[in-house]
Write a structure and sequence with these properties.
Layout (H helix, E strand, L loop, with lengths): L1 H16 L11 E10 L2 E13 L2 E12 L2 E13 L6 E16 L4 E18 L2 E12 L4 E3 L2 E3 L1 E12 L1
Antiparallel strand pairs: 1-2, 1-10, 2-3, 3-4, 4-5, 5-6, 6-7, 7-10, 8-9
């Protein structure tokens, strides 16, 4: 049993301790896509950003989702700070602000200004390709989110996707 644990540690240790050659520099660009994962929504999100300083990214974020009540769309501006870890796992935190709308299947619509806190981890499995896992907490001036089978002005969502850096 001890031999198996030692072998597992030897295999996994480079993933966590390897000093990366990757550097997220001012002037780099990244495009990412992700899926919304929660019980009431099937949707996707695309993000295009530029690094305005080393490890600081800003850009635009477009979302579309089909919910139990209708179709949701949002367009946000975001800024995130990525924390240099010297590994291939790079945590980040930031915020976004934008406009969202929900067009109801039964007629009518709701729209509002949205603010979201963003936190996540990027894992670069190649020098320019990352697997992204992100948790967002959002609030809106209108009921543009869906939660607990009703329209809501708040949202907590988990997103998983891929990013490409150049």
């Amino acid at each position: 049993m001890k031999k198996h644990i030692l072998c597992l540690i030897c295999i996994l240790a480079p993933l966590f301790s390897h000093a990366q050659m990757l550097k997220l520099n001012k002037g780099d660009f990244e495009i990412a896509g992700s899926a919304t994962v929660n019980s009431n929504t099937i949707g996707f999100e695309t993000r295009f950003g530029a690094f305005v300083a080393d490890y600081i990214q800003t850009g635009i974020n477009a979302k579309w989702a089909d919910t139990n009540f209708g179709t949701r769309a949002a367009f946000n501006l975001y800024m995130i700070n990525l924390f240099e870890t010297r590994t291939y796992f790079i945590p980040y935190a930031g915020a976004s602000i934008g406009f969202g709308s929900l067009d109801y299947d039964f007629g009518g619509s709701e729209s509002g200004v949205e603010f979201q806190l963003i936190g996540g981890v990027k894992y670069y499995f190649a020098d320019n390709v990352s697997l992204n896992t992100e948790l967002t907490i959002g609030i809106s001036s209108g009921e543009t989110f869906q939660g607990n089978n009703e329209m809501d002005d708040t949202e907590i969502a988990l997103r998983v996707g891929l990013g490409f850096l150049w």
